[in-house]
Amino acid sequence: MKLLVLFALVAAAVAWPSFGMMADSAGAPDAHKQHDVNSVLWKVYEDIRDPHLKELSQSFDPLSGHYDDDGVAAKRLMKELNENRLLEQNHWFSLFNTRQRKEALMLYDVLEHSTDWSTFAGNAAFFRVHMNEGEFVYALYAAVIHSELTQHVVLPPLYEVTPHLFTNSEVIQEAYKAKMTQTAAKIESHFTGSKSNPEQRVAYFGEDIGMNTHHVTWHLEFPFWWDDAHENHHIERKGESFFWVHHQLTVRFDAERLSNYLDPVDELHWDDVIHEGFAPHTMYKYGGYFPSRPDNVHFEDVDGVARVRDMLILESRIRDAIAHGYVTGRDGSIISISDSHGIDVLGDVIESSLYSPNPEYYGALHNTAHMMLGRQGDPHGKFDLPPGVLEHFETATRDPAFFRLHKYMDNIFREHKDSLTPYTKDELEFPGIEIDSFSLSNRLETYFEDFEYSLINAVDDTAEIADVPISTVVKRLTHKSFTAKCVINNNNEHDVIATVRIFAWPKYDNNHVEFSFNDGRWNAIEMDKYWTKLTPGPNTITRSSMDSSVTVPDVPSFLTLIEKTEEAVSSGSELHLEDYVSGLGLPNRFLLSKGTTKGMDFHLVVFVSDGAKDAAIDGLLENTSFNHYGAHSGKYPDKQPHGYPLDRRVDDKRIITGVTNFKGMDVKVYHVEEQ
Ligand SMILES: [Cu+2]
């Protein structure tokens, strides 16, 4: 522990940038806005409890608000409302349901086009009362993330806003019981399934509330429905980010499997059975239980979604495009994908998003597959079951089939990446730069910790009866902090800006055969990426695992968020929540993949590239709002492709391991059973 403190002090003493979401005081959220957002999300299935917002929900007229679209969006939604076309309350909502998505996006548009806070808050309060709760939560989250008005507002953790989508049904039932009997309860959560199911060994990953929050947040920040013409700005490298975020989940899940003595995930085959069944043990707030799927079912055509044959046709069109090195646009134009930018186009095509150049031809492989898989329990709608877990980003990773599906798409992406020419020595070299040493402050250790979160918002209540505390305690993977120390020699006579890229991959496969460099690098988990200045001579750089740019800290609990906000509102002081404005990264405690008691071998690599060449923006070192998966409504600061330089195939590993700005080493990750 002392050693750790020492390293932390050293880290603080060395001047180096932090790329977490460290905003300056100008980045503090307006306490009143934060208050309003908290209040409309608190007990979202109940009446609004905040007197001011409740009053606003009755008095505000959406047609009298201030908008930058002449109120077109507000008029459209009000017409739907007045003509009783909107989905009722107390009904499930799924983003993959076309009509429901349309309705949610109509509200999103109204909020997004609001030009002042009283219009935004008025609409939020008004439509919270008049629209389906699921649609409302989705629209509000998307609007808070993308609207100019809410830039620094922190969204409460989704697992405390809509706990049903994150918690087992058994726990939810206990919570209802606690509420009915007015007895405080702290309910233990267990992972889904029994020990007879080997998949249960890795359920801690698919069911991790922080990982699920990360996944939902990514889809909110980079929505497939995003329409540039409508929203007035382009989301950069959205397709590539789609590939990368899911690639990282895929390789990470395989690493977790290896540490639990399971084979890596096999990809999904449309013409084979779906080997693993799944019983979600999860229920909707309204709409019953999520449907189950037995083992070894044959893929069925799903009425109103797609036929299995359609999926195979789409896949072969996409594979054709990869083999040709180009996709065909709607108008027959040829769009090359045989360069670094190709992955971005391909990501748009496969998801597909509205950025896809030809959805009529290439379809929406990913989105349709989610629905196909989600409906296999009731493919013809005979039993009127609600959508499956795969039809919600909050719940999708609970089903192991999610990872089969994504392995399948990841392999298509790999086919494309493997078609590109490997990087040459010239491209990889950073003249005059040499990594002298790389070391870690302490043993890498993972363990499970108990985490408690509130279920108050899961249960029904009335304003007259006081709340009793109801929470659940769940085990989650975490690790000891560590500091990485890197000594880099700059043999040039001038300062340079360097990009430091750190990855790790499991050294051995499930048969304890060492991965070749080429297979290992495809399985690489991104650990960190940051920029630093190197002065002539040796430079010692220390970096704490807490600062990794691929991760974010836990958002404070909803109740803490409310407390802090109310304190700031009543005292007029500033609200300090800067660290939490983006929930985009993986949870910080999730940086290390689970180890084993004897130590799981990983190969760790560090690559330093020329920051001046990589920079897509000015002032890299001063840019403090960098987040790994993209800059919040800004430009992604790194010009290199995600995963660079491991994104392309390596035919001869000496080309990369031979440059002085690359260093590899073996490390072990230990798992400690009881802390
Ligand atoms: Cu996803």
TrEMBL record:
Keywords: Signal. Residues 399-410 form the Tyrosinase copper-binding domain. It holds the Pfam family Hemocyanin_N. Transmembrane segments: none annotated. InterPro entries: Di-copper_centre_dom_sf, Hemocyanin/hexamerin, Hemocyanin/hexamerin_mid_dom, Hemocyanin_C, Hemocyanin_C_sf, Hemocyanin_N, Hemocyanin_N_sf, Ig_E-set. GO terms for molecular function: oxidoreductase activity. Residues 1-15 form the signal peptide. The keyword Signal applies. Belongs to the tyrosinase family. Hemocyanin subfamily. This is Hemocyanin subunit 4. It comes from Metacarcinus magister (Dungeness crab). The gene is Hc4.
